[in-house]
Design the sequence.
């Protein structure tokens, strides 16, 4: 487990910025609750790289995890994504909680198309219930159900204005990851 | 019933009529009426007698099948209803053996036949059936086997990090799931939630009530709803709640879960700790790591470090005397969860149980070593298994008590049966009554065992070696004091000769007697023989009798003796101070 180097940090932050925008600062500088013993100063969160996966955990947790040997350590805190063999960074479904709480652009789905999205399909205009204003094209969006349960995230196909003029069968948002992957692709997470 | 009455009426009327007609006819009809009455009464008597005889016959009717009958039935495919009837009959006979037994047939034959029939009817191997018959009376054993044929109810646990039970119940009901809040399980396992009064429940069971939901039936798959995928609940068996409730981790503590996969208990720990503190989730099998990680992420747990060690190595990695609490849900033979996995019926043998027990003993020592006895909020270990064998449960806890400075404390679960203190030839520490056993037929939970230990001291060596010798080998510790007693009553000059005599008598055990009082368990091999022990006891009694006689003779009243004793006690106290 090691801290991220320059390139890796840029890649991760770029991806995160797509979804959370200026909230990124808040994400990094949150006071951490985990690992703190009663009465000590609040800690920070940090990113660590382990076997091509990026973990987001509080510093206390990371410190305790240094005892564990590299082969035996499986995870620390939350895994937010992984680096592919060619060096690109992809966010995983397990980062959803983090993204959802700091997201800038959100999409709400109608109940009828929840299941379709959870199977991995893209979001069609007919399934779109609400969308935040001023979403640009190709901006990262977090997708919620009408009960405000985060279902996944993706990329907006069109900006908000254009979305209003779309046909019902046109794609409004491309699917990147969803919560159904815990059942469909448990091994890949 | 009406007939005699009618007869009487009729003859009354007739007689009245006949009084006017003539005396001869009156007698005639009367006689006929009486004859009818007598006949009626006789019939009734016979019917009664027959009924009695039938009942008696049914009681005496059950005979054990003869070897020829058994031969015959083994040729044909087994007649299951007949076998079940025979099982019930034998259970009935065994429940009132004196009255219902067949003459000349020993109890052992009944039990053997019962074991055979149970094995054939339910499909267990002989080892399993024998083990159950040793643990339970025949009727309860039958209930146990029957309970294992049906699955326990599906239970889900609300993830308090993300949802509240009431809201979740509402959402799921809207989706078409038929569920109820999980209350304290009543014996009859009714679906009605029993009210949980604060005087009865400890705070642990109150959280139990607040997160559990029982699912009776569902139109949608409960394990694939959007709420499940968003991590609002976890499908678990109700018995899996128990060890976590017993452990009761506090916020900001460091907790280790030695056998964490697939993560139901770990996520419950995190929920109770509200994502504060640190949890080390360890799992030995690499193949199960994926499901553990996935569940942790799904349920939104952020305070966990996941690692893949053998639990026995963990103290080396995480350090000894560091952690606040440890949960050890040990790998076991699974004899309590037959309803989930029917293959356990035939695959377990004595060797399997012993292997499991050895591993569990090593793991529990590792668990105890990791805990900091002087932690401000903790110092507890919870050991649980999903097995009902004594070798994997009470024996392991007893081993831990002997090897480390721990004690058994109440788990906080007020339902469930206390663990065994003695079982067949084994004797366990009395505090094991605080452990809890759960059975499918009694509590409608999977067979389970939970024990909570508190670590007293951070030393590995037992501080209570003296204590051990006093408890176990009190006989031997008499020896050094005996010469003192004798010398007190005899004159000082005889001291040496008396001691020599005693030494001669006790020569084989002399090494043990003249050694220091501290004993280790290994020295149990050098115990004196039974005759020597009884001789020593007799000598001691003689000496005590002489003492008391001497005291009584010197002082006249018993109250005076008491006063002296009280005075001696006071002196001793002063001496101590």
Sequence:
């Amino acid at each position: 487990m090691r801290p991220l180097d320059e390139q890796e940090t840029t890649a991760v932050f770029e991806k995160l910025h797509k979804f959370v925008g200026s909230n990124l600062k808040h994400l990094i500088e949150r006071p951490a609750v985990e690992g703190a013993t009663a009465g000590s100063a609040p800690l920070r969160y940090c990113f660590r790289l382990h076997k091509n996966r990026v973990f987001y955990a509080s510093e206390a947790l990371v410190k305790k995890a240094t005892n564990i040997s590299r082969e035996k350590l499986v995870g620390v805190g939350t895994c937010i994504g992984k680096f592919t063999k060619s060096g690109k960074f992809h966010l995983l479904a397990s980062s959803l909680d983090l993204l959802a709480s700091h997201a800038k652009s959100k999409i709400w789905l109608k109940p009828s198309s929840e299941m379709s999205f959870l199977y991995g399909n893209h979001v069609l205009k007919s399934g779109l219930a609400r969308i935040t204003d001023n979403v640009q094209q190709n901006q990262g969006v977090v997708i919620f159900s009408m009960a405000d349960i985060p279902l996944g995230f993706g990329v907006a196909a069109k900006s908000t204005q254009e979305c209003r003029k779309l046909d019902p069968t046109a794609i409004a948002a491309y699917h990147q990851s969803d919560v159904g992957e815990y059942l469909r692709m448990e091994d890949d997470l | 019933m009406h007939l005699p009455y009618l007869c009487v009426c009729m003859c009354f009327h007739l007689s009245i009529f006949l009084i006017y007609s003539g005396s001869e006819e009156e007698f005639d009809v009367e006689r006929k009426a009486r004859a009818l009455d007598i006949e009626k009464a006789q019939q009734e008597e016979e019917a009664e007698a027959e009924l009695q005889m039938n009942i008696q016959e049914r009681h005496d009717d059950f005979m054990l099948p003869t070897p020829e009958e058994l031969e015959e039935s083994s040729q044909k495919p087994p007649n299951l209803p007949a076998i079940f009837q025979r099982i019930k009959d034998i259970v009935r006979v065994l429940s009132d053996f004196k009255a219902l037994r067949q003459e000349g047939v020993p109890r052992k034959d009944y039990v053997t036949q019962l074991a055979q029939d149970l094995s054939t009817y339910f499909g267990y191997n002989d080892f399993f059936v024998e083990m159950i018959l040793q643990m339970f009376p025949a009727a309860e054993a039958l209930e146990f086997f029957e309970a294992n044929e049906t699955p326990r109810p599906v239970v889900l646990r609300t993830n308090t990090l993300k949802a509240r039970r009431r809201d979740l119940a509402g959402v799921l009901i809207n989706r078409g799931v038929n569920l109820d809040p999980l209350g304290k399980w009543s014996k009859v396992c009714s679906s009605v939630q029993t009210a949980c009064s604060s005087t009865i429940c400890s705070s642990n069971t109150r959280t139990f009530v607040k997160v559990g939901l029982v699912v009776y039936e569902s139109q949608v798959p409960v394990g694939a709803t959007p709420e499940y995928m968003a991590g609002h609940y976890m499908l678990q068996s109700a018995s899996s709640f128990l060890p976590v409730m017993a452990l009761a981790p506090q916020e900001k503590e460091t907790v280790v879960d030695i056998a964490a996969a697939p993560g139901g208990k770990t996520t419950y720990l995190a929920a109770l700790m509200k994502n504060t503190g640190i949890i080390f989730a360890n799992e030995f099998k690499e193949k199960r790591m994926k499901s553990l990680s996935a569940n942790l992420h799904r349920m939104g747990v952020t305070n966990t470090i996941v690692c893949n060690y053998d639990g026995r190595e963990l103290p080396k990695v995480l350090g000894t005397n560091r952690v606040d609490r440890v949960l050890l849900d040990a790998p076991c033979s699974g004899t309590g969860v037959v309803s989930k996995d029917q293959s356990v019926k035939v695959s377990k043998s004595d060797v399997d149980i012993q292997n499991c027990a050895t591993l569990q003993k090593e793991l529990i020592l590792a668990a105890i070593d990791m805990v900091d006895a002087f932690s401000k909020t903790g110092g507890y270990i919870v050991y649980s298994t999903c097995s009902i064998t004594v070798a994997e449960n009470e024996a392991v806890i007893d081993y831990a008590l002997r090897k480390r400075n721990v004690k058994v404390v109440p788990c906080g679960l007020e339902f469930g049966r206390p663990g065994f203190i003695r079982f067949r030839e084994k004797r366990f520490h009395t505090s094991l009554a605080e452990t809890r056993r759960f059975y499918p037929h009694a509590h409608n939970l999977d067979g389970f065992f939970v024990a909570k230990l508190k670590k007293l001291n951070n030393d590995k060596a037992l501080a209570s070696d003296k204590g051990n010798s006093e408890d176990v080998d009190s006989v031997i510790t008499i020896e050094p004091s005996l010469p003192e007693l004798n010398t007190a009553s005899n004159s000082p000059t005889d001291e040496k000769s008396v001691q020599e005599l005693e030494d001669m008598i006790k020569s084989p055990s002399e090494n043990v007697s003249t050694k220091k009082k501290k004993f280790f368990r290994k020295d149990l091999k050098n115990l004196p023989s039974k005759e020597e022990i009884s001789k020593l006891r007799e000598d001691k009694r003689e000496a005590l009798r002489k003492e008391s006689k001497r005291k009584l003779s010197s002082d006249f009243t018993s109250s005076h003796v008491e006063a002296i004793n009280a005075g001696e006690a006071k002196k001793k106290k002063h001496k101590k101070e």
Q: What stands out?
A: Chain B touches chain A through 37 residues (CB under 8 Å). Residues 158 and 542 of chain B are 69 Å apart (CA to CA). The longest strand of chain B covers residues 448-455.
